[in-house]
Design a protein that fits this description.
The chain is mostly beta strands. The protein contains two helices and twelve strands, in the order H-E-E-E-E-E-E-E-E-E-H-E-E-E. Strands 4, 6, 7, 10, 11 and 12 form a six-stranded mixed beta sheet that branches. Strands 3-5-9-8 form a four-stranded antiparallel beta sheet, with no helix packed on it. It has a two-stranded antiparallel ribbon with strand order 1-2. Keywords: Disulfide bond, Repeat, Signal.
Length: 159
């Protein structure tokens, strides 16, 4: 009755595969599984990877920083495939090639670093944008720059 057992396992595999809507899958590592007596059933492991749009899991936080200082915004997003990131200031893409801006990326995370911070340019909203082709996620952070003023008795900061 080995044929019956092998047929049952094969049918069970087909029903399970038909019940799933697979975004991506691959088979790995064939193995022979004993079914009945000396008979075996060839078994393959099926690895299923579900695709999903990005979701911000760590949003950048609002910051206050002294003019001429350094500020860093952190952003993390889930999603499959892993999202790519870019940053915006007041709705326009931040140019990371400029001397004052640096964007550091790793899988699922991005850091925007501004050095030195300028009161007349950087007092604004910065947005982390994560995109993986299936969707886009956004998170805002407000930067408040405390202005430096030169006075008769030296420098001081205006809050």
């Amino acid at each position: 009755m080995w044929w019956g057992s092998q047929f049952y396992y094969a049918l069970l595999g087909l029903v399970a595969a038909a019940a799933l809507q697979l975004d991506s899958a691959h088979a790995s590592g064939a193995a022979d599984v004993p079914v009945h007596g000396n008979e075996t059933f060839a078994f393959r492991e099926l690895v299923v990877q579900s695709q999903s749009p990005p979701k911000i899991t760590l949003a950048p936080r609002d910051k206050k920083v002294l003019e001429e200082g350094t500020v860093s915004f952190f952003c993390r997003a889930s999603g499959n495939p892993a999202p790519s990131f870019h940053w915006e200031r007041l709705g326009k893409r931040v140019n990371a090639r400029r001397n004052r801006f640096e964007v550091i990326e790793a899988p699922h995370i991005s850091v925007l670093r501004i050095k030195p911070v300028k009161a007349n340019k950087d007092n604004s909203t910065f947005t982390c944008v994560a995109n993986n082709g299936l969707g886009e996620a956004r998170a805002d952070a407000q930067l408040k720059v405390i202005r430096k003023v030169d006075g008769r008795d030296g420098e001081f900061f205006v809050v």
